Amino acid sequence: MHTLNPSQAKWRKSSRSSGNGACVEAARLETAIGLRDSKNPDAGHLTISPEAFATLLTRIKHDEPTI
After folding, report:
1. What is the pLDDT of residues 41-58, one digit of tens each?
2. Between 9 and which of 5, 27, 53, 58 could a Cys-Cys bridge form, CB atoms 3.0 to 4.6 Å apart?
């Protein structure tokens, strides 16, 4: 799904999210990936390129530093 309006995006939580509420949600936007805090979705979101998101996921899966 591609959308210009983040409020209409389909936000998804990871299936590996823990039950403690510390979760990040992601959504596909028109030209980027949106990331937001699931506990406070109205606080805004970060936007990164699909390529940067793929790199982030790869580094997390390989337990590599992300910063």
Report:
1. 899 999 999 999 999 999
2. 27
